[in-house]
Design a protein that fits this description.
The protein has 179 residues and is mainly alpha-helical. It contains eleven helices and no strands. The radius of gyration is 17 Å and the shape is globular.
Length: 179
């Protein structure tokens, strides 16, 4: 509801740096990661406000989201912290999907190396240990938005993105072997 309130967005414009610092996270424990995921989701929705989008992008939101999409659980992470990291990755991909709707966001996504980061979960989706459905969906949406840019489209063709996307739309066999 906060992102939908115009008065709240006006207040948040003045606090974009603070919001970015909070969304950057800090801890690897479950509570810290869940808080980070919630703040990333807020940042994702706040990108629909043009002034906030510019402040968030200039503050490095997309760079941080690119890094988070590719984050891996640590050896010391318990199951709850690892599950919370999946949520962070899903929300980071949402940030990229919404950010790539704007031309400036697409350019920042490409310059931050976001396409490779987004293609990784898409390629893994057809494997034995696929990422969460939300991560795959958000990554695919971000790639689709990014492909509106000529630079991104050329990079996607060169990087074989079509091969990563085709298994997402092809029929899959269920446990009984029926298509």
């Amino acid at each position: 509801k906060l992102a939908e309130n115009p008065l709240a967005r006006v207040e948040l414009r003045a606090s974009a740096d603070t919001l970015l610092a909070l969304a950057a996270g800090g801890g690897a424990d479950e509570a810290s990661r869940r808080r980070q995921a919630a703040l990333l989701l807020l940042c994702a929705y706040l990108q629909y406000d043009a002034k906030l989008r510019a402040a968030l992008h200039d503050g490095g939101l997309l760079d941080r989201a690119v890094a988070l999409v590719g984050a891996e659980a640590g050896a010391d992470d318990d199951a709850a912290a690892a599950a919370a990291l999946v949520e962070v990755k899903e929300k980071a991909a949402s940030v990229l999907a919404i950010g790539a709707q704007a031309a400036a966001g697409r350019a920042k996504l490409v310059s931050a190396g976001g396409l490779a980061s987004l293609l990784a979960p898409l390629r893994a989706a057809a494997g034995d240990a696929p990422p969460s459905a939300a991560l795959v969906a958000n990554a695919a949406l971000a790639v689709a938005h990014a492909a509106l840019s000529d630079d991104a489209a050329a990079t996607l063709i060169t990087d074989g993105a079509l091969g990563a996307l085709l298994p997402l739309v092809a029929p899959r066999d269920d446990a009984d072997g029926a298509a």
